[in-house]
Amino acid sequence: MTTTVRKDALSPGDYEALANLRYALRKFTEFSTAEVMKLDITPQQHQALLAIKGLPAEKQMTVGMLADRLLIAPHSATELVNRLADAGYVERTTSHSDGRRQVVKLLAKAERVLERLSGAHLHEIREMAPELMQALHLLQDRRKLEQIAWMA
Q: For residue 144, what pLDDT is reported?
């Protein structure tokens, strides 16, 4: 998705807000990676487990849906699910409604890991929230000013 922007549309404040947002996101990613590695799983495995856990209860996670959620190729999602299954984090079954689809469910081992990691991640996000929100507000406020200018 590419957006055309006039060269004069960005202010020094826009660059500062974008840089601050990217910095905060990188700090969170580094924190997350360190926490995940303590439990001997990879960040991508953690993201997969969280994507499965975060799906509404009335839905079933398929390998294809997981690929979409993680922004990876379907064959990569299949390999990821294979590794998670081999490690005892998930089980994969054939969908009752569509035999071509594989449904992925969390096992107790994954639930324990997610409970531990999610608590630490929520705490870190809550600590970082003011920094993240400030950067987002600066970007949002700039956008509102641009919209008002267009209306005038």
A: 63
